[in-house]
Amino acid sequence: MLQSPPLQRPLVLGSTSRYRRELLERLRLPFDVAAPHVDETPEPGEAPRTLALRLALAKARAVAQQYPQAVVIGSDQVADLAGTPLGKPGEHERAVQQLRQMRGQTVIFQTTVAVVCAATGFEQVDLAPVEVTFRDLSDAEIERYLRAEQPYDCAGSAKSEGLGIALLDAIHSDDPTALIGLPLIRTCRMLRAAGLVLP
Fold first, then answer.
1. How far apart are CA 93 and CA 197, in angstroms?
2. What is the CA 110 to chain-centroid distance, rounded?
3. What is the DSSP string of 95-106?
4. Handedness of CA 57, 59, 60, 63 (dihedral sign)
5. pLDDT digit string (tens) for 144-195?
6. What is the pLDDT of residues 54-65, one digit of tens each?
7. Of the N and C termini of the chain, which has fewer Cβ atoms inside 10 Å?
């Protein structure tokens, strides 16, 4: 006799990022998406890793208030250039400025994930730092790249999963999807701890 799969709590991704949604789809779990509506302004003197951890948990908690029975994922990413946080550029000139700052440098992309379930009181948050070394890019290379890919919604102004890989010398990470925006190894670990059964 076949056993029916256990009933699972609903899963909600507390993010409007299409990159995170596409990554979570890899796990083949049904999930809903909800906007977290969290102020992402850094606190005075806040370190990039502290900011990323705080925002991931704040996003998960905010959505968990709307969906108290669900298991909620929150995530954040801050590009960390020698302790200075670099966010999403939003427009071309700011992206040019960011890439000029990062050329020839190693930037740590502080990528965080939090899992919260209000009904059970479950809360976990973890950090998956990714070290990215940028080539010594010329102004012309920066301009060509930005015109081609327009990565203005990405922290650090580059998409490693696309043409942005050509800007880089090296990537070091123990969670290979973290740089794209959601560290799936850590996410799976936390979802299991929260009681979900993964395929």
1. 45
2. 8
3. HHHHHHHHTT-E
4. positive
5. 999 999 999 888 898 888 899 999 999 999 999 999 999 999 999 999 999 9
6. 999 999 999 999
7. N
